[in-house]
Amino acid sequence: MKKILTILGARPQFIKAAAVSRAISKADELQETLVHTGQHFDQNMSDIFFEEMAIPKPDYNLNINSLSHGAMTGQMLKGIEKIIQEKMPDIVLVYGDTNSTIAGALAAKKLNVKVGHVEAGLRSFNNKMPEEINRILTDRISDLLFCPTDTAVKNLEKEGFVNYECKIVKNGDVMYDAALFYSELSAEKSSIISDLKLTNEKFILCTIHRQENTDDLNCLNSIVRALNRINKEIRIVFPMHPRTRKIIEKENIQLDFEPIEPVGYFDIIELLKNCSLVMTDSGGLQKEAYFFKNHCVTLREQTEWIETVECGFNIIAGSDEERIYKGYQKMLTKQSDFNVNLYGNGDASEVIVHQLIENL
Ligand code: UD1
Ligand code: UDP
Q: CA-CA distances (angstroms) from residue 316 to 127, 155, 297, 304?
């Protein structure tokens, strides 16, 4: 029996781990222990995903959150190290690009424990993003690099990873696995469309939480001005991340419509199924827009999911009011054939499990 120690802490990691953990639980050769760092902690940012997606209750919760990058990562490193020493796993599995990701990878590697990185090889080429630093460093010390796309594999090859002692696997996107599985259940489990009186209504789904947008008041103000303008023409449904809410309230930024609280995964899927456009700075939602055949306006200057842009499903609009408005106008009426396969066949998690069995 091989022991896997999985580190998760932030909302996107719960979704990714839900898909992989289900596949792991079917493999007799593997046993998984879950460590929640506590990075996300509100009921609707954490527990709701465990409940809805039937992710096993974490074996550990470190309750580390709401700190500066260094303090958060440092405390996680210390907490995870102790658990690794206790459990002595065969591999530590980390997801994505958050502070929980780098803390898990670094703690493992310093104890000579193998690291598996799910969502390896993604790059925005913007080193000012905390996520980019987390990705680059995590990839460099990972033994098994699970890449969602050909672009991710190419990024690693360009950085010389073929010369390092690691294995690069292109397995597809585990978020696609999750979207396929849970979208079968969401209509029955979610009542958000009727609750928000959206039946037969056109609406835009919007999320904003990236540090580069929220912590730069010029950017945030400009995005909010664009949203206020667009909301006059078509309703915007805006589940607001706590980071964004805190800043909007503190800085008294005038949003002319009521945002909603962050929603669970079943609700977000139903919103994605029914909306006319997605406007977001989220990584996950850019892909989910495409999974559910929606166009996307990305409120950032770069994307790691470049295939969506190359295929014309997504447009990069940054944070400038005018560019966002033009992007919205262009993408709202655009017609596209979404029947191209960008993120695998929905078996990305099974490929990971197969590789874990083969390589541990
Ligand atoms: C983190 C990740 C980001 C990811 C995002 C997903 C890092 C560096 N960033 O950003 O890559 O896209 O998660 O959502 O790891 N907060 C709450 N309640 C919560 C969670 C957060 O109030 O449940 C507050 C925190 O107190 C803090 C702020 O939101 O003030 C930011 O939280 P933090 O975890 O530092 O970063 P995110 O913006 O969530
Ligand atoms: N999400 C959700 N409820 C919300 C907003 C987002 O369930 O209110 C889901 C959605 O599936 C998204 C995922 O959470 O892909 C991760 O979201 P987030 O934007 O927080 O993180 P990122 O993908 O940018 O790291």
A: 18, 20, 6, 11
Residues with beta carbon inside 6 Å of ligand 2? Answer: 11-12, 15, 207, 209, 239, 262-265, 268, 282-285, 288
Residue 334 CA to ligand 1 center (angstroms) comes to 33
Domains 2-173+344-359 and 188-332 fall in the same CATH topology: yes
d(CA 125, CA 149): 16
Q: How far is CA 217 from the centre of its chain?
A: 24
The C-alpha atoms of residue 269 and residue 289 are separated, in whole angstroms, by 10
Residues 6+ away with beta carbon under 8 Å from 127: 133
Q: What confidence score (pLDDT) does residue 44 get? A: 98
Q: Is any atom of ligand 1 closer than 6 Å to the C-beta of 10?
A: yes
Average pLDDT, the chain: 98
- Report the nearest atom of ligand 1 relative to the CA of 214: 38
Q: How confident is the model at residue 328, as a pLDDT?
A: 98
Residues of the chain with pLDDT below 50 are none
209 catalytic residue (yes or no): yes
Homologous superfamily of 2-173+344-359 in CATH?
Answer: Glycogen Phosphorylase B; (3.40.50.2000)
Q: Per 3-state DSSP, what percentage of the chain is helix, strand, and coil (rounded to 5)?
A: 50, 15, 35
Q: Count other Cβ atoms within 10 Å, centred on residue 333.
A: 10
Q: What are phi and psi of 210, to 5 degrees?
A: -65, 135
Q: What is the DSSP letter of 199?
A: T
Question: HSE on the CB side for 326, CA within 13 Å?
Answer: 9
Helix orientation angle between 348-359 and 11-25, rounded to the nearest 10 degrees: 60
d(C-alpha 77, C-alpha 237), whole Å: 37
Could you count the other beta carbons within 10 Å of the beta carbon of residue 185? Answer: 14
The domain ranges of the chain are 2-173+344-359, 188-332
| Atom number in ligand 1 closest to CA 211 | 38
Residue identifier of the C-alpha nearest atom 31 of ligand 1: 243
Look at the domain 188-332 and name its fold.
Answer: Rossmann fold (3.40.50)
